[in-house]
Specification:
Mean pLDDT: 87
Shape: globular
Number of domains: 3
CATH class of the largest domain: Alpha Beta
Helix content: 25-40%
Low-confidence stretches: 1-5
Structural class: alpha+beta
Radius of gyration: 23 Å
Order of helices and strands: HEEEEHHEHHEEEEEEHEHEHEHH
Length: about 325
C-alpha cells in the first residue's frame, strides 16, 4: 500500500518561509524577521542587496536590488529556474518539498507576524555648512535648487522600534552629510546619507520625487533615478523638459501616474543609471509603457557625470541622445 501520510498535493501545504529558506540556502529560520543576503542572481556582488522581508499581509517576499527582481515565493522560484509560468513554479515547489520531507520533518505551518522594524521617530534640521556646500556644488547643485526641492541638512535622526512585549529601542545617528527630503508641507519622506555605503537612503513614506514642483507646461518629462539626478538634470537647462523620479530605480512609479503623463507630455524619457541594475529598471518602463530610454555613456549616473565632466560637457552629450528619442 502506498503511504499518503506525507503526500503534498497543494501549494498551501508548503510553508512559504520554507521556500525562501530552501532555495536561498539561508543559514537561519525565518520567523518574521527581515534578512539581507548577497544576490543569488549576481555572483560579482560584494555588498548584500537582496532583501527577504514580510509585507503588510505578513507574507514573505524578496527584493533583489542588484538585478531588479522581486516578488513572492512563486516569483522567486520562477526567476531562479527561468520557468515560463507561476504554475510551473508551483509544481516545482510541491515536488521539491515532497522530496524534502522524505528525509526531514515537515516544516510547521504556523502563522507568522513580522518583527517590528525601526522607523524614523525624530530628527532635527540644522544650518548648512561648508561641508554641505562642497558636497552639493560638486554636482552643480546650489542652495536655491536644494530649497526648491525641500532638501535640508539634519543634525541627527532617531530610529525607534518596539518589540512584542512593548519594550522600546531607540537609536540616534548624528554625523555630517545627513539630509532630509521633505514634501512641500514639511513632511519628511526620505533621509539621504551619501557617505554611508550600506544605508544611503532611509525611506519614510512613498513619494514621487519632484511631483510637487512640476509645472505641466513643458513638452517633455524626464524620469531620473534619484532626486539628486533630478536636480542635476535641471541644471542642464533644457527649457522644454521637466523631471520627476521614483523612490528608487527599483520602485516603480504608479501605472496611472505614468499613463496620465504619457497623455499630457509629447514624450516621456527614462534616464536611469547606466549600470546593469539601472538599465534593467529602465527597460521595465519601456516594456510596460513604451516610453523611450536614454543611456548617458559617461559616469554611472547623471550627477556623477556632471561632477567629473562638467555641466556643458554633459549637456552637449545628452542633447543629441534626447533628440534621437523624439
Amino acid at each position: 500500500m502506498i503511504s499518503t501520510k506525507n503526500l503534498i498535493a497543494r501549494l498551501e501545504d508548503v510553508p512559504k518561509e520554507w521556500v525562501f529558506e530552501f532555495y536561498l540556502k539561508l543559514s537561519e529560520k525565518l520567523t518574521g524577521q527581515s534578512v539581507k543576503i548577497k544576490s543569488i542572481f549576481n555572483s560579482r556582488e560584494k555588498t548584500p542587496s537582496m532583501h527577504i522581508y514580510m509585507d503588510n499581509n505578513n507574507t514573505y517576499k524578496f527584493k533583489d536590488f542588484s538585478s531588479g527582481s522581486g516578488g513572492d515565493a512563486l516569483n522567486l522560484v520562477q526567476t531562479i529556474f527561468n520557468l515560463p509560468s507561476r504554475a510551473r513554479a508551483s509544481f516545482k515547489i510541491i515536488d521539491d518539498y515532497h522530496e524534502y520531507i522524505k528525509t526531514h520533518e515537515p516544516a510547521p505551518l504556523i502563522e507568522l507576524k513580522a518583527h517590528s522594524k525601526f522607523r524614523v521617530s525624530d530628527y532635527e534640521i540644522r544650518h548648512w555648512n561648508n561641508l554641505d556646500q562642497n558636497y552639493w556644488t560638486a554636482f552643480g547643485i546650489g542652495s536655491k535648487m536644494l530649497e526648491h526641492y525641500n532638501v535640508a541638512p539634519l543634525a541627527f535622526y532617531t530610529m525607534t522600534k518596539e518589540d512584542n512585549l512593548g519594550i522600546e529601542t531607540n537609536m540616534t545617528i548624528n554625523s555630517n552629510y545627513i539630509y532630509g527630503y521633505f514634501k512641500k508641507d514639511g513632511t519628511l519622506y526620505k533621509i539621504y546619507q551619501p557617505k554611508v555605503k550600506d544605508s544611503k537612503f532611509i525611506k519614510v513614506r512613498d513619494y514621487i520625487q519632484g511631483s510637487e514642483q512640476l509645472r505641466g507646461d513643458k513638452k517633455f518629462l524626464v524620469i531620473t533615478s534619484s532626486l539628486k539626478d533630478l536636480m542635476a538634470f535641471n541644471k542642464l537647462k533644457f527649457t522644454d523638459a521637466e523631471s520627476i523620479s521614483p523612490d528608487s530605480e527599483n520602485s516603480m512609479i504608479p501605472t496611472n501616474y505614468i499613463v496620465n503623463a504619457i497623455k499630457h507630455y509629447k514624450n516621456v524619457f527614462i534616464l536611469f543609471d547606466n549600470d546593469e541594475a539601472g538599465q534593467k529598471a529602465a527597460q521595465k518602463y519601456q516594456k510596460m509603457f513604451g516610453v523611450a530610454t536614454v543611456n548617458l555613456p559617461m559616469e554611472k549616473d547623471l550627477s556623477d557625470s556632471i561632477k567629473v565632466h562638467g555641466i556643458d560637457a554633459v549637456r552637449n552629450m545628452l542633447l543629441p541622445i534626447l533628440k534621437e528619442g523624439l
